[in-house]
Amino acid sequence: MLRRTLLIGAAAGVVLLGPGIVPFGRGAGAQAQEGSSGVTEFDRVLGDPDAPVTIFEYASFTCPHCASFHTDTLPELKSRFIDTGRAKLVFRQFPLNQVDLRAGLLLRCVAEEQYFNMAGVIFQQQRQWASASDPVAALGQIGRMAGLNQETIDACMADEAMANRIIGVAQTGQQQYGVNSTPTFVIGEEVIVGARPIEEFARAIEDAG
Fold this sequence. Notes:
By secondary structure, the protein is α+β, with helices and mostly antiparallel strands. It is built from eight helices and nine strands. The protein has a single domain (3-208), classed as Glutaredoxin (3-Layer(aba) Sandwich).
C-alpha cells in the first residue's frame, strides 16, 4: 500500500516543530518556482545536471516503498542511466508527518555532495529509527555519525524557513503533477506511482529521451 500524504494534504493546517509552528503553505507563493518542472538551486540532483532526461522523485523518509526504491531499484537505475549521463535524478521531499519533515531538515544540514549518501543511510536504517521510542533522537544520532554536532542538529530541525521551503516544493508537486502519495516519479510526460520495477523506469526514460 502506498503511503498517503498526511502533511501536505488539503486538510493540513499547521506543522509543529517543537516550540515553533510552521503554517501550511506560508511562503509557498514566493517559492512557487521551486518544485516546478524546472530544476532549481533548491533541488538536490544526482548525476550530470546536463543529462537529457530528468527523473523527478517525490518521496518521504518514513515511507517503506520509498526506502525500497532507494535500496533495491536506485542502484541499477544509477548504473544504467545516471552514471552513464543519460538521466539525472532530482529528489524532492514530500513529507508525510513531522518526523518525516525533520529527517529532511536534517539532510539539509549536510554538504550538498553528501546529501544522497546520507539519504541512503536514512532509507537503509528506516526501520530502526522510525520505530524507535524517540525517532527524532534516533535521526540525530545519524546526523552525529555524519559529523554534525548536536547544536547544529537542533538548529536544523527547528528551521521554520527551510521547513516552509520543503513544504512549498511538495505543495507545488501536488498542484502540478497531482502528487498525493509516495513515491511518485515524473519522467517527461509520464507519472509513475509506487516503487515500480526497473523496466518501467527504463521504458519511461527511453520514451523521454
